[in-house]
Specification:
This protein is an alpha/beta fold and 177 residues long. It has a single domain, classed as Rossmann fold. Helices cover 44% and strands 21% of the residues. It is built from six helices and nine strands. A seven-stranded mixed β-sheet has the order 3-2-4-5-6-7-9. A two-stranded antiparallel sheet has the order 1-8. Helix 1 packs across helix 2. The radius of gyration is 20 Å and the shape is globular. About 10% of the residues have low confidence.
Length: 177
């Protein structure tokens, strides 16, 4: 009798865990898609130097394959961005980073951001991150959760160093750091 009671509780706990896991992964995927959409909209307010090759608009993703997939969906849905074909590349580490206009560093990226910044130093790359403190370290745009709302920081000095012009409209809605 006692074994039946314990088994019922174990089954209930297992079911709750399964539901929690599905909800969490679903909300993670939703957040990733939401962020990708925001990044697409934000990028419309950035002007890259004329020296940037505009035959292809490249978005690099460093860290999460789920984020990479979300960016790939964006590329399919928004092809012809800035009158150039959009390409998404997945980089497993910072040694592989090359030729991209946007580099998204996901929370799953476990290496030091300073290495990424060295690798892309003085290049016109819009570095976007989603980790507390990365804005101060050198990311141009960094997502932050403020009072339960997703907002973003803008490191204007870093944008200037990289030759990126940020629209006044974007500056008004950003948290300038």
């Amino acid at each position: 009798m006692r074994n039946d009671f314990v088994m019922k509780w174990i089954k209930k706990l297992y079911l709750l865990f399964a539901i929690f896991t599905m909800c969490y992964s679903s909300s993670f995927a939703q957040k990733a898609k939401y962020q990708v959409d925001i990044i697409y909209r934000l990028s419309k307010h950035i002007t890259w130097p004329e020296t940037v090759n505009d035959s292809k608009f490249v978005i690099g993703v460093l860290g999460s394959k789920k984020d990479f997939q979300s960016f790939q969906e964006l590329a399919v849905n928004k092809s012809g961005y800035k009158k150039s074909p959009m390409e998404v590349r997945y980089f497993e580490n910072n040694d592989a980073i090359e030729d991209c206009q946007i580099l998204y560093i996901s929370k799953e990226y476990t290496m030091e951001i300073r290495d990424v910044l060295k690798k892309t130093k003085n290049q016109p790359v819009l570095i976007i991150s989603d980790e507390e403190g990365y804005g101060e370290l050198g990311s141009v745009i960094n997502f932050v959760d403020t009072e339960g709302k997703l907002k973003f920081e803008l490191n204007q000095a870093q944008a200037d160093k990289r030759g990126l012009q940020v629209s006044e409209k974007l500056k008004k809605i950003a948290i300038i750091i």
